Amino acid sequence: MSGAILALEGVTKSFGPIEVLHGVDFALHPGEVHALIGENGAGKSTTMKILAGYLDPTGGRVTFEGKPITFTGSDQAEDLGIVMIHQEFNLAEHLSIDQNVFLGRELKRGLLLDHKAMRVRTAELLSRLECRADPGAQVSRISVPDKQMVEIAKALSRKARVLIMDEPTAVLTEKETEILFRQIERLREEGVAILYTSHKLGEVKRIADRVTVLRDGVMVRSDRTADVTEDDMATAMVGRELSDLFPPKITAHGEPILVAESITVPGIVHDASLTLHKGEVLGIGGLVGSGRTELAEAIAGLRPRQGTVRLNGAELPAGQVAQAMRAGLAYLTEDRKGAGLLLEKTLRENLTLPLLETFGRPLIDHKREEAALDRAIADFAIKAPDRGMAVGDLSGGNQQKLLLAKTLLSDPQVVIIDEPTRGIDIGTKQQIYSLIAQLAAEGRSIIVISSEMPELIGLASRVVVMHAGRIAGELSGDAVTERGIVGLAMGMDGSSKDHAA
Amino acid sequence: MTTATNTLTRRPRVNLTVIAPLVALLVLIGIGMALNPNFLSWANITNVLARSAFIGIIAIGMTFVITAGGLDLSVGSMAAFVAGLMILSMNMLTESMGPGLPVIFAGIAIALATGLAAGFINGILITRAGIEAFILTLGTMGIYRSLVTWLADGGTLSLGFEMREMYRPVYYSGVAGIAWPIIVFAVLAILGEITMRHTAFGRHCAAIGSNEKVARYSSVAVLRVRLATYVLLGVLVGIAVVMYVPRLGSASATTGLLWELEAIAAVIIGGTLLKGGFGRVWGTVVGVLILSLIGNLLNLTDFVSPYLNGAIQGVVIILAVVLQRNTGAAR
């Protein structure tokens, strides 16, 4: 095999004090499809962004054609033929397809744009991808798979030597995936080096020549795809020891308290049912985008839904979040900054927002608010240098603790916690885990939604796993394993043996 | 570490912007005193305050609308329309009932109800039909303006002589030498400030303007609060009209012209964020006073032509926004 075109040598990357990549070695060779797999947060995206010049490594070096290189930005990388296709589309929604394909490197005739040439070239690219969208169509009006094809057409038009694809098939149907694979194979024959990531291990096995597994920012193994099975890959992705980060689990056998039946959120969640028992910690697993959050939001009254939700036997109407809260159901959002806290407001104003009416009517009693904040700071160990500071200036961990305090202010019987520890350090994680256990011990019932497998396994005695908007299965007791959850989450068959309770 | 130093260095700057409108007002008063000894005379001050009361009352409502992330361009036209309708119905009632206090009360009720209805229409279309506030109120601005022109048949609607004499004291008389419009403005300003700072409604307005999604996830009734801000503004327009009609006893197509811009300008000068999320009624009151004192000063002195009033007000508005943007960047 020829030498690597683009490679990482002992690359580390830190965001602030947290190191997310610990000495990664990784090489892309011309004419080879190299798959990079790992769980959410394993460092795949960071690795790709360093390769494509979007991020600089903190340590180690990037080499291009054997020589060390420091990209000034993704522009320089693109000029060298390194093109990345993003998972979130990087398209200008209001421009047409051809305008997007040639954005920033428009074809010109003299001073003016050569519209005709660009349209013809775009049409050629699209027909190669068997995409029937009109090159003149506005991108905001085309379907999601078509957008993916436009991204790919854009990359093809750049004469890529290295193509980095971040989960390109996540939004494609099987047929569209096949078309994409034919293009990948064609590019491979032309000698392009391709980096491919996917959560679908079957695809990796099918298309990749080499597969590298990343776990917690460390390269775990790298093999020729022919030498490994899907099971080997899954084991390598999740195989990690659980420390005593988690408090002992309580197995609860209380009465059902929350019963959701046939919940459907059009286009996102299909016919999902679940039951939560008193004093139980129930986990919901599944990939990002599998409909976990939407299911929880539908139950909490934050989204229109079909299907019924009963709390203590009484039905909760759809779309009535205030009523659900008064009935004793609280939801903690995964989107802390976008939907959880008012970043430019103070701690006090954030804490009491959901329950302002109970702090005095018609005039708010500021002393009672301050007292509530005192209690929250003590109970949740919130560290704020100054009580009057804006919440946006708190650390992520302290924001999360404040959000927990805010959610629990209404003294709910049922709490749904979506990604309890996203983006926070290990110490705060442990505090939040023991807090969740404590809530369950008090007789509250908790649903934990998480992308982090150890979190689900460490906290929940029963885990419901979602795949593509449906509940793929349920695991309980000793059957709650990383392998079991990953299997269900990836829609792999043969995991039904784990169903037994 | 960095956050701690940020808060330390930012603190005095925030305090400065908190009092900046007040400082500007004091500077303006100082200049006025230096240029013309009559500036601080009782007659001049009450005159300025009484004239600014209409815009002031509307600007109080505008503070809530803007704080909740909205905008209402229709208030000036709405005021003209409400005034026209009030005068027209009072004249008709005078014919059927004869002149008297009941006609005045009926007129006031009609003004308040029309204001409420107009605000409700704005609010319901913005919240339920999801029309951009700027566009919708631009549309209703044209509609109300054209309706009053039509009601007046292109001319002027005048209150009958007897009723005008009877209604006059609402603008021209008062208590202890303070005219009624000033008293009403002051009372509403105090109530507004309390509502903004100390009630759930005021806090909810700021929360919605700051981040609507967070408010919704915190079980705040976002649409209802939004709607309420427009209804409140409509009612306040009605009150302003009740105080305004006795002044001239007439309404025409030019009544309340550009009031919406003056009200919005006063709100922004007062330190309320145009993008919403933070508002203060006392600041709006200071903003109203600054704008009307500028006009008054130019009239009292020969220093600058009164025709340049608009230019100077414009400079003040731009300065206020620049100041706001600087604090925004510091956040």
TrEMBL record, chain A:
Keywords from the UniProt entry: ATP-binding, Cell membrane, Membrane, Nucleotide-binding, Repeat, Sugar transport, Translocase, Transport
Listed GO MF terms: ATP binding; ATP hydrolysis activity
Matches recorded under InterPro entries: AAA+_ATPase, ABC_carbohydrate_import_ATPase, ABC_transporter-like_ATP-bd, ABC_transporter-like_CS, P-loop_NTPase
GO cellular component annotations of the record: plasma membrane
Top-level taxon of origin: Bacteria
Classification via PROSITE patterns: ABC_TRANSPORTER_1 (PS00211), ABC_TRANSPORTER_2 (PS50893)
Annotated membrane topology: Peripheral membrane protein
SUPFAM superfamilies: P-loop containing nucleoside triphosphate hydrolases (SSF52540)
Subcellular location: Cell membrane
Residue ranges of domain ABC transporter in the record: 6-241, 252-493
PANTHER family, per the entry: CARBOHYDRATE TRANSPORT ATP-BINDING PROTEIN MG119-RELATED, GALACTOFURANOSE TRANSPORTER ATP-BINDING PROTEIN YTFR
UniProt name for this protein: Sugar ABC transporter ATP-binding protein
Species: Paracoccus hibiscisoli
Automatic annotation (TrEMBL), chain B:
One matching Pfam family: BPD_transp_2
Gene Ontology, cellular component aspect: plasma membrane
Subcellular location: Cell membrane
UniProt keyword terms in alphabetical order: Cell membrane, Membrane, Transmembrane, Transmembrane helix
The keyword Chloroplast appears for this protein: no
Record GO terms (molecular function): transmembrane transporter activity
Xref: CDD domains: TM_PBP1_transp_AraH_like
Chief site of localization: membrane
Residue spans crossing the bilayer: 16-36, 48-66, 73-94, 100-121, 133-151, 171-191, 227-245, 257-274, 281-298, 304-323
Tagged with keyword Cell membrane: yes
Membrane topology value: Multi-pass membrane protein
InterPro entries named among the record's database cross-references: ABC_transp_permease
PANTHER family attached to this UniProt entry: ABC TRANSPORTER PERMEASE PROTEIN YPHD-RELATED-RELATED (PTHR32196), RIBOSE IMPORT PERMEASE PROTEIN RBSC (PTHR32196:SF72)
Name of the featured protein: ABC transporter permease
UniProt source species: Paracoccus hibiscisoli
